[in-house]
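Summary for the funding panel

The consortium committed to producing paired sequence-structure records for every protein in the target list. Below we show the first two records in order, beginning with the earlier of the two.
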Amino acid sequence: MESAMDALRLLVTKKKSQAREIAAKLSETNRKRQEATALALTHARQSVNENCDSKILIAHHESYLQGVVGLVAGRLVDENYKPTIVISQIRPLSKGSARSISGFNITEAIKSAGKYLVSAGGHPMAAGFSIEPEKIPHFKEVVQNYAEKNLSSEDLTQKLKIDCVLDPSLINNKSLQAVKNFEPFGIGNPEPVFQTSNLEVTDVRRLGSGGKHLRLVLRSPDNFIHNAIGFGMGERNVKSGDLIDAVHNLREDNWRINKKLQLKLKDFLPSKKI
């Protein structure tokens, strides 16, 4: 959305007044990026829900900013565990970004529709490309056919790797900040995955189109309350009073610029009785 030169200028300037000015500009740029990402993500979720049986998700719209399509694709992969392509459908040349899952080479999938592309490049887990807007429907058809032939149901079953057990007493902003110190997350630097046990469900809500997503309020044994979100978990059987063991990421919920700690659920099971 802006040039990276501003960040470089902030690092090298020796004038406090200039540093404050650049920092304020970067903060405003980041705020706008977060808003643009949130808007595009909301629209893209609705778009892919209309074709949720496809083995690869493809969303495209003229409102998506080029600078956020990669972020949106990554979030959709996290939520659905399917390879995802998001396209900023601008003229005269649309820009697309893709993220994949383990075992599926997204660059090869995109290049299978190479005759419709202007340019493309990437690696097995992420790719970018440019395409003329009127050729997007043909591109989608070829890539979806490629995914149908090259992805199995087993490939689309996510295997969870838990990095460590997190005691309920450590679900706090200090732990969140420790996690954020390792950002940015991505290929080669995955986001930490925690397991926390014996969390009591105190509230259950279904969100999104058709109640696809799940929002829980959880109480820890030391009576701290935590919000949790489970994308694509709306059909899971859970009710108030249940005791669960949760596998999750620690996230900062920026909805409506109201920053709160949130557990992003990856899975949960009834707590084991000892």
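The next record, for a separate protein in the list, is shown here:
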Amino acid sequence: MRILAVLTGAASVPAALDAAELAASALAGASIEALEVVVDPEHMVAASEEISIQRLREMREGPPEERARAVRTAFDNWMARRDPKAAPVVWRSVTGAETESVIREAAPDVALLTLPHDGNMDASDALHAAIFSTGRPLLLVPPAWRAAARAGFAHIAVGLIDDDTMRRAIVAAEPWLRAATRISAISVMGKSNVSADPATMWPLTSIVPEFRMVPPTDEPTASRLVREADRLGADLLVAGAYGHMELTEWLFGGVTRELLAVADLPLLLAH
């Protein structure tokens, strides 16, 4: 069983790998594959517009070989500092388009993808591929986040909404929920939570969380959810990613996009 850590920039390598290592601690025998996709327009089979965009990108971010060297250096530095007794980590570098490469590398033995929420083109393409095309849960990590003294995701918050996408996300998160010492199921009451009893929205009968009902305010749902998770001291927030109106929400916004914008802790997302 593998965790696929997609590396999309040198500065965020520690965040992606720290998160992958914590996630691996909940999976017996898990290993981590650090994946770097070198998006080089000289070796791409893509539309001419995409190739032109990548060439313009070089003016802002540097040539692909320079970016690749920086990512590899950051990986080597992280490896030199980690506990040798932790889950084994292997390096893999492929050349190609980000979207197609992430989809191809998310093989059946991949239990989870981790990805830093960088602001570059590679991260955006990898995020879309991971959520919509791999069928795997995604651990999305703020680029400046670090595991620090954590040995695992001990306290997990769950954004509880009366929605099938949310229930699927909870089921996908079951291995990490079972390993947690505390689970806080946060229900921001409003029109999306039609059930008066939050327990009826929880799909795992063998795991019982602490149910917390948060009254609605003028604050956006995502901000309210993140603020409550932070107040409780959660290490990780589980949420559904894009429901039945996925294309509209991806393009124009919604709770998922709000979460991506405001979250300061790792998000475990499933579509």
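Regarding this second record: The chain has ten helices and ten strands. The chain has two domains: 2-141, 155-270.
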